[in-house]
Amino acid sequence: MIAMPVATVALGVDTTPPAGCESVIVTRVTIDSRDVQTGDLFVAIDGQRFDGHDFVLQAIEKGAAACLVTEAWYHKQLEKPKAPCLLVDDTTATLGTLATYYRSEVMTPTTVVIAITGSNGKTTTKRMIDHVLGDAMPGRAALKSFNNHIGVPLTLLSAEAQDRYLVIEIGTNSPGEVAALSAMAKPDIGVLTSIGFAHLEGLGGIEGITTEKFSMFDHVRRGGMGVINIDGPVTPDRLRRLERLRLMTFGFDEAAELQIQAMTDSVRRSTFTLDRQHRIELAMPGGHHATNAAATFAVARWFGLDPAHIILRLASYRPASGRCRVVEAGQVTMVDDSYNANPSSMAAAIASMSLADCNRRVFVMGDMRELGQDSADYHEQMVRQAADAGIHLLVVVGELAVEASIATAGLTGDMRVIACQDATLAAAALRGLLRAGDLVWIKGSRAVGLDKLVEPLREQWHQPIAVA
User: Fold this and answer.
1) Which of 76, 245, 331, 468 has the greatest number of C-beta atoms within 10 Å?
2) pLDDT at 47
3) pTM (2 decimals)?
4) Same domain (yes/no): 205, 334
């Protein structure tokens, strides 16, 4: 963060500067009292599990220079905090206001803000872009999946004066969220990774999803860049409406400017040709990651990086835990893809697994959440796809996946199906089911907790984790 006087922070959020704060400087913003460092502005967020106001005194003791609190809370305190307090009605909304002000009035104008949205691939694309650009210039990317009304402001407020780039994720669960976060971020580059069947419950079908995702481009600065995956429901008419931007399309579609061709896929790596001339290799399974790499290539070229350098950096990229990370555990290979799932990403995982050369294909399929009224149909479709793809053993985890396995009983051929209500039961079942030479692909929505399977299975086969 670029240091700001507390009085400037007060100006940015339209509140009265506290008395005696003239010499107080804020050097960082945090909402986590455990993470407070000297010079921080601690924002007391009233969250689902904790109210940050309960930790204001702790934050000050750890060195917070100032705190952002509600006026109602402050006036209830008999003993006032011994640090400047900015008083507002709603601390969560004010965090967004502060980020908007910081982006417009404080952030270095030459810092290129890259905003990424999409049904799948946001975090992987963010990490790939940061991996490629970060080798050539100073910059940063959002921590974890900071893609909502709290994460996006914190990411914007993390930008330093010397940063050449800042990569943010923009997520959504309901109409209008992408537009609101994009208006805050004012991107120079907007990246649309994919449009698929995710968050159907809140967005009302594929047309609603497409409209929501495309709303980001309304807030990309004029003359900025739109990097768009045109595989799927992206019509020429939608693209024509973006005439104020420089567009770069990518995907498997023949009309894509950066077309993906000659795709080969295995558990440990995937390769493809981009733009009919650049041969790219990724040390991760899944042909769908080719589109993430294509988006990264487009962004890196915007910065003027040489294609050969980009290709080398993409080859050295390694995924994070839960995002197609290959774990070698003795004679069993696992793909930890447990962070999240929707029908599009689940189908991509099954397709990649069907190509694997292994003893048996063991697919651990967890519930896919937020799919709305057609959720049962999507789960049943995935079970049938697994059978058609030659999966030998399907372990379904969670209420929705178990119900789908029951509904499709007798329709899955020779595929063996094991039903488990939760991840703990699945871990116990798998301990007695796996054999040497098996490939185990673990995928489900984060709430199912399938990440808990990885370490017990690795320990069972008595080998340290090694990433392919």
Assistant:
1) 245
2) 85
3) 0.90
4) no
